[in-house]
Amino acid sequence: MAEEKPVVLTCAQATGQLHLGNYLGAVRNWVRYLDDYECFFGIVDLHAITVPYVPAELRKASLECAAQYIACGLDPAKCHLFLQSHVTGHTELAWVLGCITPLGKLERMTQFKDKSRKQEDAASFIGSGLLYYPVLMAADILLYNADRVPVGEDQKQHVELTRDIASKFNETYSDTFKLPAVDIPKTGARVMNLQDPAKKMSKSDPTQTGTIFLKDSPELIRKKIGSAVTDSDPDRRIVSAKENSGIPNLLDILSACSDKSVEALEQGFAGASYADFKSAVADAVVTTLAPVQERYQALVEDKAALNAALKDGADAAQRRAYKTLGKVYRKCGFVERPR
Ligand code: TRP
Q1: Structural domain of residue 164, as residue ranges?
Q2: Which of 135, 184, 246, 289 could form a disulfide with 197 if both were Cys (CB 3.0 to 4.6 A apart)?
Q3: pLDDT tens digits for 257-292?
């Protein structure tokens, strides 16, 4: 029998439009796991409803996001891409795990504190789902017995909580879950806003001129990069060690899109004008995104292919999920359903 590959799992909330920061900082790194791991990628719609939202927008964003992930290289023939709500087991396991998770720990989670404060400021109500969010996330991970969980720095605390919950379950019942390792990418650019390099590139950028979306046309990409802020350095130095300047971010972007090191780029562009440098950055971004845009266009024209991919992903995820859930329910002392 073929040896089972180790499991990578990661999930993200559907943002309607992915941007260059999502691609270079996250999704492109996930693609690197496809050959050596069994990969599960979830779009977590159940998590999305922990804060106020619009149902029709969620539905649209979930499908759009799935299409964009596939376009980015999450080839459905090589991984399982699924919507969280398509798989029975996430919420069931979350319930069981919640019963062994101390309330105080959930109340102390950074993300809960931030998000509940924001909600309070917006004078809207704080649903208990927000408190329970990390337990559902632990269930996402443990349901697949993931070996590795690639996430950004901001999610590290959640994966650490998952390890604690897994240990607690193993001690309380018996050895069941692997303790998942957090994978924070060392490579992969942290892409900043082109108009305000102190902020991360984000889809909630109000003007959108500082954010490059994967769907932006080559002309628009060139325009946005052309008008990116730089600095007023009289020497026009293209170097990474600079404060209050857009140049380091453009160097990072070019490095990520050309596979050349920042040092090599600094040398290559010594003495070049900012305009020439920007046009090289724009060329590299346009070239990097071209195949993504092509695949995306093909998927938009072939809805059946997208549905088929999501069905296969959900089926594979469900098989795993039932296996884990069955085991967990037996250990918990639940009577097996008579057949
Ligand atoms: N909380 C994660 C985020 O906001 C999304 C997420 C949900 C996740 N479940 C997960 C990430 C499981 C990794 C593994 O980005």
Answers
A1: 7-189+303-332
A2: 246
A3: 998 999 999 999 999 999 999 999 999 999 999 999
Residue 197 lies in a domain: no
- Secondary structure (H, E, C), 65-132: HHHHHHHCCCCCCCCEEEEHHHCCCHHHHHHHHHCCCCHHHHHCCHHHHHHHHHHHHCCCCCCHHHHH
Counting the structural domains of the chain, the total is: 2
* Same domain? 308 vs 279: no
The label of the residue with tokens 């309607």 reads 16
pLDDT in tens, 70-106: 999 999 999 999 999 999 999 999 999 999 999 999 9
> Among all residues, which ones are annotated catalytic?
115, 200, 203
pLDDT of amino acid 121? 84
Closest CA to 248 of 203, 194, 187, 201: 194
**Binding pocket residue ranges, ligand 1, CB within 6 Å:** 9-13, 44, 47, 137, 140-141, 149, 151, 155, 158
Judge whether residue 8 has pLDDT over 60.
Answer: yes
Q: Whose CA is nearest to atom 11 of ligand 1?
A: 11
Contact 146, 4 (CB under 8 A): no
- Contact of 27 with 39, CB cutoff 8 Å: no
Between these two residues, 16 and 36, which has the higher pLDDT value?
Answer: 36
Distance between Cα 137 and ligand 1 center (Å): 6
Q: What kind and span of H or E run contains 55?
A: helix 55-71
Asked whether residue 281 is domain-assigned, the answer is: yes
